[in-house]
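Usage

Read records sequentially. Each one opens with the input sequence:
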Amino acid sequence: STFQTGLYLMPMALCVAAFSIISGILSDRIGPEKVLVICIILYLPSVFGILPKLNYYTPKTKSIFMIMSWGVAIGMFFAPITTLALKELGEKTNLGVSLMHYVRFIGGSFGTALATNKLQKSIAFHYDEICALQAQDLYYGKQFLMKWHLMTSQYFPQDIALKKSKALFLHATNIQAMSHAFGDTFMESGIYAVIGCLFLVFFLWEKYYEKKAK
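and closes with the structure output:
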């Protein structure tokens, strides 16, 4: 249910909130640049090595911890990024804050659109792929249909029971397709994460050489 989903995501949200504060404290002590390096080290393994392994069969407790690792990395980004973006604006800080909010809103909209497009595309691809595999081995699919038809025929007439068993089979196929599609979507989000991290690397590289020149 929606309520259960919210409960499973709550630990991740708490990690984002807690580590936003922790990263702010660390930014004041060791500098935002070093905190960003730590963020990159935590974030990339989570989006490439952990989240793509999350699927329909992952146990609930394990899935919570997998998402929490991602929440830690996400939470640590906010404070150092904001500090680097606003600390040298001076009197134009208000303008910088406004622009930063616009960038976040636009980026969030683009990110949602790209993720939704990838998810739906992958669901359709894997659904067709699974159906093609089922067509090659009709015996395997018929075994499921016969099993579910036997179960549903205890409560419904034969013709309705057959339709319901076919609907269950299609639903199971769709769940499998969605399970694979979420892994693909998480993996593609990692590619965008790498692109974003490259900008950070170039920025930190430039800052390093500026300090070295002085």
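Summary fields computed downstream for this record:
- The mean pLDDT is 83.
- The chain is about 90% helix and 0% strand.
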